[in-house]
């Protein structure tokens, strides 16, 4: 079976890569390799070939649970490498607004969760409104964030014509936790660069993991403004989870 977990070279060189993905990836590369791009870790990971990529075609999501398991296995082979996964979703004309893409984002996460046979990690709350909740798959806690063309002001979140989902296992933040000096300094440096790119202050829902005054799920897909999200989390925890 053909693997859907791709390297940068795979996307450029493999004959079976869809044309839409090649176009989207070229745009993504142009943005992320810009020397002024705010996320140092994203730019460095791409240039060092530490990132991995996958894609979802319309009505063909079936491979993704196994693809994500393959990524987790790769991550565990050398935990010292701060790997991330970027998922490109085939663009669809009817998706226009932030809410449209936010709905699609949560649809992807719900699909993954519903296909996950592993029990929910015991140390992660099941309630998304708990400040220590985060998305998990195959018992791996993850930070997930959405990027979409509907972002007009927050340009750092516009990485193509379709939804682009970034997935970062929480293990890559070891030593960069919210209360650690390295974590505080790195977040502050990125924040300043993001604000310079976007010409907007930090979104009010952005904070560090473990902040009792914030919810992790709200940071997954922020608004294109400075207004906090007031809706309920759309994620539905499966009742059969341990």
Can you offer a commentary on this structure?
- The protein is of the alpha+beta class and 242 residues long.
- The protein has one domain.
- Helix content is 34%, strand content 11%.
- The protein contains seven helices and five strands, in the order αααβαβαβββαα.
- The protein has a five-stranded mixed beta sheet with strand order 1-2-5-4-3, sandwiched between helices.
- It is globular and about 50 Å long.
- 26% of the residues are buried.
- The mean pLDDT is 91.
Topology:
Blueprint: H1 8-13, H2 19-32, H3 40-47, E1 52-56, H4 64-77, E2 85-89, H5 98-114, E3 135-137, E4 140-147, E5 164-169, H6 181-198, H7 216-220
Parallel strand pairs: 1-2
Antiparallel strand pairs: 2-5, 3-4, 4-5
Protein name: YqcI/YcgG family protein
InterPro entries: Uncharacterised_YqcI/YcgG
Q: Strand-and-helix sequence, N→C?
A: HHHEHEHEEEHH
Tally of separate helices: 7
Determine the N-to-C terminus distance. 32 Å
What is the mean pLDDT? 91
The largest pleated sheet is described as:
5 strands, mixed
What is the strand tally? 5
Percent range for helical residues?
Answer: 25-40%
Domains (count): 1
């Amino acid at each position: 079976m053909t693997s859907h977990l791709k390297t940068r070279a795979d996307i450029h060189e493999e004959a079976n890569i869809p044309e839409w993905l090649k176009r989207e990836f070229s745009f993504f590369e142009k943005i992320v390799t810009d020397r002024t791009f705010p996320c140092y870790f994203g730019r460095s990971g791409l240039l060092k070939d530490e990132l991995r990529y996958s894609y979802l075609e319309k009505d063909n999501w079936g491979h993704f649970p196994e693809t994500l398991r393959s990524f987790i296995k790769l991550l565990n082979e050398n935990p010292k490498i701060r790997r991330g996964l970027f998922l490109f979703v085939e663009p669809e004309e009817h998706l226009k607004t932030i809410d449209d893409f936010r709905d699609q984002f949560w649809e992807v996460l719900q699909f993954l969760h519903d296909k996950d046979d592993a029990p929910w990690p015991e140390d992660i709350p099941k309630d998304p409104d708990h400040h220590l909740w985060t998305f998990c798959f195959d018992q791996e806690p993850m930070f997930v964030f959405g990027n979409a063309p509907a972002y007009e002001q927050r340009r750092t979140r516009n990485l193509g014509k379709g939804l682009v989902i970034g997935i970062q296992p929480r293990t890559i933040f070891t030593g960069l936790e919210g209360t650690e000096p390295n974590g505080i300094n790195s977040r502050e440096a990125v924040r300043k660069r993001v604000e310079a790119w976007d010409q907007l202050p930090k979104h009010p829902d952005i904070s560090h993991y473990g902040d009792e005054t914030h919810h992790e799920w709200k940071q997954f897909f922020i608004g294109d403004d400075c207004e906090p999200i007031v809706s309920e989390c759309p994620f539905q925890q499966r009742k059969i989870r341990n």
